[in-house]
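Dear support,

We are seeing what looks like truncated structure output for some complexes. This example has three components. We would appreciate it if you could run it in full and send us the complete token output so we can diff it against ours.
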Amino acid sequence: MAKTMTILWRSGSMMAMDANVATKLAKAALEKGYKVNMFGYGEGITAVKKGQAPKRFPNVGDELQELADAGATISLCETCYAARGFQRGEEIEGVKIGSLTNNLFVFVSESDRLVTIAR
Amino acid sequence: MVKTAFVVIRSPQELDASRIIAGMSDRADAVVILFEDAVYNAVLADRADGLDRVAGDVQVARDDLEARGYESSDLKVGRAVEYADIVDTIMEATERTVSA
Amino acid sequence: MADSMLVIVTKPPYGLEDAFAGLRLALAMAVNGLKTSVMMTEDGVFNALAKQRPEALSMPSNVEATVELYDFDVPVYVVREDLLERGISESSLAEGLKVVDRSALRTMPAEHDVVTTF
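Here is the complete output from our reference environment:
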């Protein structure tokens, strides 16, 4: 059974490249055959917004979409999501609006490694 | 003590990574992975010396290094690595991952 | 497979959401039965002060978020040297906190399956 990496990312989509580091790490882990979970917490939830269109910067929404399509399990904190005015349906396909208690707990429980990407 | 991968993304000005690592691990058990502005830790001589004293292995994300105008030959400590190498470090070569 | 987590809090209260977010994450793990510990270090030790008045900023209390952890047997440690460096006396700390030497930072990660930092 493949080992599992969970990435807890807490930085948003644009102010820093942290979320892009998280997506690149996740992509490399998937390509090596590991199971990958990702959980967006705090400002990190902004990275899952559908329809991001940065003109000159990497599109972390597209990167997350590709990861979800490639088999990464992606969830985020609903409290953080609602606090920032996001509503269900605004997230990219395949992302589960979840919670620390239900989703991150499961991710952590099944993890061999937890990687935190935050400032 | 367990073999630990320390993930650093903040610049040397923002975070004294060497101090954090020294407080948590023996040199032989510490691997540090530098992303984003943390790569400056490996090209600034005094910061590189500090990391070399506390971490037995220093890995620098190659894309972040090259984006900032540096290359492997500029490193004062450690080596430039790809994300695939970093995954190996986190999943196989170390037992815990700690973000500094 | 992880059965335990160490949450390291390095950020002070109220200017950033990090410390509160870390304490709530610890609570969420503990209520599910994951063995969870919290370690306050660096500027994170400012979260340990008893006389916080978060109502001055209309903020939730990091002291209350800390004390709530005790109901789920989450030990909350504070690094003695970091208190001393900041001139904080142990008598000014909130109830129930466990003051430990900095050397605990070297041993506690090995006692938990995963570590996260706030």
